[in-house]
Amino acid sequence: MVSKQRKAELVKEFGRNPKDTGYLPVQIAILTEDIESLKKHFAVNKKDLHSMRGFMAKVNHRKALLNHLKEEDYTLYQSTIKALNIRK
Question: In order of start, what are the domains of the chain with their CATH numbers?
Answer without folding.
Answer: 4-84 (1.10.287.10)
